[in-house]
Amino acid sequence: MPDVLLRAENLTKHFPVKEGRFGKQRSRVHALDGIELSVYRNEILGIVGESGCGKSTLARVLLNLIEPTAGTVSFDGVNLQGLTRRQMREQRREMQLVFQDPFSSLDPRKTVRSLIAEPLDIHRVGTPQERTKRASELMETVGLSRSYLNRYPHEFSGGQRQRIGIARALALRPKLIVCDEPVSALDVSVQAQIINLLQDLQQQFGLTYLFIAHGLDVVRHISDRIAVMYLGKLVEIGPADTIFTASRHPYTCALISAMPKFELNPSSNPLPLKGEIPSPIHPPAGCRFHTRCPFAQERCRREEPALTPQDEHHSFACHFPLPAEAETGVRPAVHA
Amino acid sequence: MKKLWKDPSSAFCLSFLLLITLLALLAPLLTPYRYDQIAADPLLGASWSHLFGTDEIGRDIFTRIVYAGQVSLLVGLCSTLIALLFGVVLGLVSGYYGGALDALISRFLDGLLAFPSIILALAVMAVLGPNIYNAMLAIGLVSVPIFARITRGSVLTMKSREFVEASRSMGAGDGRIMFGVILPNSLSPLLVQFSLTFASAVLIEAGLSFLGLGVQPPTPSWGSMLNAAKSYLTISPLYSIVAGAAVFLTVLCLNLLGDSLRDHLDPRMNKRR
Amino acid sequence: MNESLLDVNSLTVGYRDGSRPISILNQVTFRIRKGETLGIVGESGCGKSMTSLAVMGLLASPLQVQEGSIRLEETELTGLSAKQMNRYRGKDLAMIFQEPMTSLNPVFTIGSQIEEALAIHLPLSRSEVRKRAIELLQLVGIPSPEKRHGDYPHQLSGGMRQRAMIAIALACEPRLLILDEPTTALDVTIQAQILELLASLKEKSGMSMMFITHDLGVMMKMADRVIVMYGGRIVETAPIAKLYEEPLHPYTQGLWKAIPSADTLNQRLYSIPGTVPDPREETPGCRFAGRCPHARQECLAAVPPLVPMDEDRSVACILYS
């Protein structure tokens, strides 16, 4: 068995919302529902899904930035929900977050030095001189010139800012970095630089990444394993290659075939999804995907499928999975 | 700051405020008289030895105006600082923690705001007794809610910003996030409000002194001088005019300065230019 | 098919900084044929959105057309007054923006917004207008159009809002539809639906499209011909197949290689070094020279002109002149 760094059990998060006139009805957004997930040491686990699937909430609950409604997260054997506030703050040294928007995630009033050294300041690591030295080393590690140390974030381009964000996440030598759409806001030519940097750093420091993105090509490129989410549920998880070429869940298959591909005369979408993503406030009963699934049957409306392991690495939650053999592209035809 | 000097209206205000401050600070060097010294006959007109004339018992009005400036500015400054301190802390706490604490603090502030500020200050002075320190406290208390509201408002917008979440994800504690991250990013509206509250504090202090509840004689204050002068409006109009002008110009300049600070600090206003 | 609908010639757009004119868009020349979809790709700040705004006559002050012409068939658009331009805008030219929520008016129902677009340009009675509006909602695939006609924008999902935007844009059967990143704000499965819809609408109506995107996958699906822009200039233009098979400009080549795909798995991605230049910084030579693997001394001296390579492709690079 691979070495588990982070383990989520039955992780559930509901946000209360007020609905109707005068907020009389109290409802809940089902952001996460019963997520079971293991992140192995030194792997890159990609998480994909559309808006409202709960992937950003998952990132924050795993880091215990948001308290889960139910379930537990254990990091390196430590149950995060059992920690006091002080212990949790200490624990944060091991787990860092890289944000999507390099413009809003850096305090505009701080210099690059104080931004990168902020985690060191918070945890009082070394003397102020040592922190400055470490900050300038980190600048070099992420490919920025040391001479920029006293500049402010607005003087940098998006890619450079994202490098600052990464340097900050590295400062305390964490074990886990959660990357929440780290390249979505960047231009294509800059995106490749950041992906390469993230990969290099993972090798160099033996890091574990949880890599959240909606750009599927990026996730495929960087991830060892991929988890697919739909409306707060984990619908399929497996090795990146399996997910892309031999997925069994119809949603995974539809998501991948909907992705615009960089190729000549792209074949028309073999599994177009009809309709909209349902509201996470009132998720459909039974399988949450049944309202849009071309293969849905009566059972799917009543009974919720559990995430079942297909083999050691590959699990999915579907009553009527796609056949395993054929290529993703042609499989729906087989079904029809 | 440089930009403020380039704008003619704010440059004028800054210069005037600087002048008033200097006059107040250097009062003992500027005039040969003491503020409680009877230097000549009462109610004299303007002359070289008594620039603005003398008051009802023969004290030099210019001397009293500049010494009163000391009192007014000091009371204004201290009460605004008191309001800023308590307002910011209350605003930070209620905005950051939210929930029942926020509701409690907000209702308390709403209660304070429900009184007209001068009446509230009067009531506090009546309870505490009239002296300069109580005046500072009373006027400060009156202005707490506005600072608290401004702070709470910007805490609420800042709280959802990603860089705040970033600090939290690095393990920063509540105090560090409130004072090290949120507060520095909320300074501009507070600075603007500081200038506006300073103005109203000077005004309230003048009002209290006018009613005899502020600084006690013989210490001069613009408000008490106005009160004394009103009886001699026809005999010595200069007395009223000078005392009134001191209050009027100081308050006006502080307000105008607040407005131009807002224009310069608000990035949205800048874009429109 | 070979007839031009839109001819843009040496278009230069910018603003004045004191007495110094600053150009953001430089010498942009292209044409769109009838029934053709022209894709414009490039990264942020390359000028692709500004090109579309210039064509629509929607440049916001202080930006203005400094040089060049924009011709819609026989009509020169650059010199037109705002009033004259309004006759074309919404009728012959229509535009769809990235964020449907901000381009729809929140206080009117989507039905009334479509009807407004119709009523401005077409002499129709009120009942005809309403009938046509419902037809349009049906055309763009909004379910139960009679009911949705009375909905406000906030009652619709992102995908439905973009459909409503498309309905408004198509109200007067424009000859040229400009789409500025129309699916960037949408989820992948919804994006696929909207792209499908746009392709089928184009087939039905025979209109021309100008499709602006940074997503090369979307471009492959939608465009017949492509303009690649960089730093306010066109660096390459070619039919989609030729551009895909054999990109000529080093920037296009770099962009192509930087996209992760099944072939690049377990490899380092190719990345173009450096960052996108600031459009306000004027450099004498090729804008890409600082990041180009083939850059030579001459590249810094003068801007390479857009040179035709064969009948329908051109490239602006010293390597090919």
Walkthrough of the structure:
The complex is a heterotrimer of chains A (336), B (273) and C (321). Chain A is of the alpha/beta class. Helix content of chain A is 31%, strand content 23%. Chain A is built from eleven helices and twelve strands. In chain A, strands 6-7-8-3-9-10-12-11 form an eight-stranded mixed beta sheet, with helices on both faces. A four-stranded antiparallel beta sheet of chain A has the order 2-1-4-5. In chain A, helix 3 (112-122) runs parallel beside helix 5, helix 4 (128-141) crosses helix 5 and helix 5 packs parallel to helix 6 (188-205). The two termini of chain B are 18 Å apart. By secondary structure, chain C is α/β, with parallel strands linked by helices. Chain C is built from eleven helices and twelve strands. Chain C is globular, with a radius of gyration of 21 Å. Chain A binds chain C through residues 50-51, 157-160, 187-193, 195-196, 199, 214, 216-218, 220-222, 241, 244, 254-255, 258-264, 266, 269, 272-274, 276-277, and chain C through 43-44, 157, 159-160, 187-193, 195-196, 214-218, 220-221, 240-241, 244-245, 254-256, 258-262, 264-265, 268-273, 275-276, 291.
From the spread of the alpha carbons, the general shape of chain A counts as: globular
Could you state the oligomeric state of the chains shown?
heterotrimer
CATH homologous superfamily assignment of the domain at 68-231 in chain B: MetI-like
Biggest interchain interface, per-side counts: A-C, 41 and 44 residues
The share of residues in extended strands of chain A comes to: 15-25%
Which value, in Å, is the CA radius of gyration of chain B? 22 Å
Any idea of the CATH topology of the domain at 68-231 in chain B? MetI-like fold
Please estimate the helix content of chain A: 25-40%
The tally of beta strands of chain A, per DSSP, is 12
Helix-strand pattern of chain B: HHHHHHHHHHHHH
The end-to-end span of chain A amounts to 38 Å
Overall structural class of chain A, as computed from helix and strand content, comes to: alpha/beta
Biggest β-sheet description of chain A: 8 strands, mixed
- The top level CATH class name of the domain at 68-231 in chain B: Mainly Alpha
Largest sheet of chain B: none
User: How large is the share of residues in beta strands of chain B?
Assistant: under 5%
Instruction: Please give the radius of gyration of chain A in angstroms.
Output: 21 Å
User: Would you identify the regions of chain B where 5 or more consecutive residues have pLDDT less than 50?
Assistant: 268-273
Average pLDDT taken over every residue of chain B: 85
